[in-house]
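Annotated sample (chain length 328).
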Amino acid sequence: MARKDRLPIIRKGAGRGFYYELDSQRIMDQQELDRIKGLAIPPAWKQVRIARSTRAKVQAVGVDAAGRTQSIYNPVFRARQDEAKFARMLEFGTALPQLRAQVRKDLRRRSANEQKVAAAVIALIDEHLLRVGTPARSGAGVSFGATTLRRKHVKPARASLKLEFTGKSGQPQSIRVSNPKLMRILEELKNMPGHELFRYLDENNHAHRMDADRVNSYLRQAMDGPFTAKDFRTWGGTSCALQALLEVPGADAQAPEQLAKHAVETAAAKLGNTPTIARESYVDPRVLLLCEEPERLDRLRRSYRQLKTRHHLDPAERCLLRVLRTEP
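Output written by the structure step:
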């Protein structure tokens, strides 16, 4: 989070609206007020502080209704961040098989130690694209991710388990887990004492809560790269969008913009996001470029139909690696 001295402008309430102060002086300059208005800071945020420089990485911070500190970033910084995120997808996809092999190995461990429980979290994120989760303050608006799920969120279902919880932005989530090995581990963890679902046992048999830092540490070690659990949502969203394109028959080819819309909406449904967020943050633009190259997309479709899951990558993921290797 940015230091307060880099966010010297303070928002204050005035009736139904707001005014802004810098060094205890009310800002009257219309150009500056227009800039602040353009940041679209949610009215519900409290303790709002705003950067004076248009070049600052963090343009504004505030506390939302759930008590969480939120930030509005400079669009240039966000664009660079997204570019870097998509740029490492080839490296992530290349290292993914060795991670999945390690996860499979650690899920076979007898004790619910740190490695086994971290592997279970990653398996859940990998299959269902959950957010990793950060500790939330109590009260209204609390949301959950993989590491912050509680035992009460696990419900029995026919030949499966259901995870029912409130996700980011208050969206209700219902995840059906049918992987037998993962189901057994979730049932085992549910029977451990404590509120949290993902708890591991140390060498003295004391239980500890699994957290995002430990999950990311496991990832970096297994993948030998600077990856985090967030990369799964980018990889999974992009792979899902590509699969949607590959499963549209060539004979029924739609206009490029319709194809792209279909791909993005499919990814958004899987991610639990709006299509706008999915397109901006999770679907690699290189995949959507295929919508404008029908011959190349048809060649990729023919390959896709011949491929099988191999080296822990499904056919859509194998095609995605091909796309990423041939695009700059």
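Annotation: The CA atoms of residues 9 and 25 lie 10 Å apart.
Annotation: The first strand starts at residue 9 and ends at 14.
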